[in-house]
Each structure stands twice: as C-alpha cells, then as structure tokens.
Amino acid sequence: MTHLILTRHGHVEGISPPRFRGRHDLPLTPTGREQARRLGTFLASRPKIDAIYTSPLSRCIDTGVAIATATSVKATAIPELADIDYGEWTGKTHEEVERADPERYALWWRQPQLVRPPKGDSLQDLVARTAEAVREIIDHHPDDRVVLVGHDSSNRALLLTLLDLPLSAFWRFQQSPCNLTEIEVSSRSVRVDCINETLHLQDLTFQVEGGRQRSTERAI
C-alpha cells in the first residue's frame, strides 16, 4: 500500500488579494517559510517518510527542502507536479480577469472543465499530467510513505484522479498552504485519511486567515 501525503507549498504573495499565479515563480514569504518549517517538523515526528516529490517551481522546492531537512529524506522536483499554466491570465488579479474576460471567468468557477485560459492549459491538460505523475509514483513506491508538494490546482487535480471524480468536482476541495491531505492507495481500494488538515499550523493559520490574507478558498 502506498501512503500519499499531499501538501501545498507555503504562503506566497498573490494569495490575497488573489492573483492567477500558475507558472509565475514566486518565493515563499516569511510566513510561508515558517509554515514549511512547521510542516517538516510535524512530519518528522510521524512514521518515516520514504520519498518526497515536488513541483519544479521554487515555492514548492523550498517547501520540499524544509521537509527534507526535517526528515533527512531527499526531495526530487518533477515537472508533472507543476501548477496549471494560466496563459494570459497569469499574474493578473481576479478582478482584472473578470473585467477583461467576464464570460470565461464566470465559467471557470461554474464549469472549469469547459475553460481554457487564452494560451494556457485546460483542466484536462492538468489532470492528465498529474495523473501520470501519481501513477508512476505509486508504481515506484508500492509500500512507501510519499510526500507530494504541489499547488492548489495540481492537488485538486490529483484528488479528482485518486477519488475517481468528474472534472466538474474540481472546486469541492480546499488546499490551504502546507496542509496535510493523506490518502492510502492499494490494489483493492483508495482510502482518504484526511483532507486539508492544518492543526500543525494552528496559530499561523489564524494569523494568515484572520487578516488581509483570509480569502484563500479561491486563491490559485
């Protein structure tokens, strides 16, 4: 049985007010670095981690390094875990995209499976890419505990694949920075242990969500 531990990178600028970050490579903020450190410390206190894979974007690599340092396990970046490419939406606020492209923006929240941002990825592209990554990881780690450090969007896509859900269910999951989402995968079944657990960040979560940076539910 493979025990998958999905997490999202730590806090970065652009979560609130929200921007379409996607492939825009942003560093962790001081809060993000502390979230990553606490996540690493918490994982080090639990059963042994066997492997760590991260998105190639620096916010995920740095979060993976914090986990690797705490657990003494090498972190490896793989391109399949990269965030969705928002194309011409990248770097823009939600208000800017809504003004410039109102119909497509509204459809993104209502039926994301029918949307491709101009010159960007579709949800189908993202799901296919992340599904290939998780398939290979499960094949290579049939009896291991594996951490995957990704993005809000890539983690949602992985959950759609692992839980055999339609693309229209994309918005049903929340993935907060440095959360824990744990899933056990065997030849017979897929079992969810927890989704978006953040107790290891309790006071930090309050600081981030209690002020200007509260609205993470729609942060991309």
Structural features:
about 220 residues; alpha/beta; Rossmann fold; 6-stranded mixed beta sheet; 7 helices; 6 strands; about 40% helix
Polypeptide structure, described:
The model is unreliable at 206-220 (pLDDT under 50). The protein has helices at residues 30-44, 58-71, 94-100, 102-110, 123-140, 152-162, 202-210; strands at 2-8, 51-54, 75-77, 145-150, 180-185, 190-197. Strand 5 (180-185) and strand 6 (190-197) form a beta hairpin. Helix 1 runs parallel beside helix 2 (58-71). The longest helix has 18 residues, at 123-140. It has one domain (2-210): Phosphoglycerate mutase-like (Rossmann fold), CATH 3.40.50. It has a six-stranded mixed beta sheet. With 220 residues, the chain is of the alpha/beta class. 38% of the residues lie in helices and 15% in strands.
* Computed structural class: alpha/beta
The largest sheet has its strands arranged as 3-2-4-1-5-6
* CATH class descriptor: Alpha Beta
Helix content: 25-40%
CATH topology: Rossmann fold
How many structural domains in the coordinates?
Answer: 1
